[in-house]
Amino acid sequence: MKKNQEMHAESGLESSEKPGSVGSGYEKISYNVIKAVKASVGGYFGGYYNAEIDLINLKVVWTHGGNDMEEVSIYKTIRKATAVKFIEQMQEADLLAWEDKYIEPGICDGTQWSIEIICDSGTIEKHGDNKFPKKWEVFCNAIKKITGKKFE
């Protein structure tokens, strides 16, 4: 293992100088310590979508509402293999390396999104306003697959 990548097995943290690191210093959370992911996307005209994926209790909640629509929520239980596949998809999306915020200045209406990544060591928050990470579609497709519902 490289000198600047000392693994802390108990906490799931590793020292790193890569972009997307979390906390003070160079700590970076590894994918295997993610306990849950909460994501929201929406805008004024299309309403919003929320997804909560609990990887410990294997529960998923998907909600759609807003824009004078009645809020609809779907609850489901997932298998452990589905949770493992979801984490693999988060790695494909390179979620932990995303910047904390993506903002397109000068646009008032449009699409806002936010993500919370819950780990033992805390919560990582990422959000955007009319601007998206490079692998946003990979992330959205993973949410669609695990919820079985639209997320855009």
Strands, count: 10
Return the domain count: 1
The CATH homologous superfamily is named Mago nashi
Q: Overall mean pLDDT score?
A: 84
**Helix content estimate:** 10-25%
> Regions with pLDDT < 50 over 5+ consecutive residues?
1-26
Which architecture name does CATH use?
A: 2-Layer Sandwich
Query: From the helix content, strand content and strand pairing, which structural class follows?
Result: alpha+beta
The CATH class assignment is Alpha Beta
CATH fold call: Mago nashi protein
Q: What amount of the residues lies in strands?
A: 35-45%
Taken in chain order, the helices and strands follow as EEEEEEEHEEEH
How many alpha or pi helices?
2
**Rg, Å, rounded:** 16 Å
Structure characterization notes:
- By secondary structure, this protein is α+β, with helices and mostly antiparallel strands.
- It has a single domain, classed as 2-Layer Sandwich (Mago nashi protein).
- 16% of the residues lie in helices and 41% in strands.
- It has 2 helices and 10 strands.
- The chain has a 7-stranded mixed beta sheet with strand order 7-6-5-4-9-10-8, with helices on one face. A 3-stranded antiparallel beta sheet has the order 1-2-3, with no helix packed on it.
- Strand 5 and strand 6 form a beta hairpin.
- Helix 1 runs antiparallel to helix 2.
- The longest helix is centred in the middle third of the chain and has 13 residues.
- The N terminus is likely disordered.
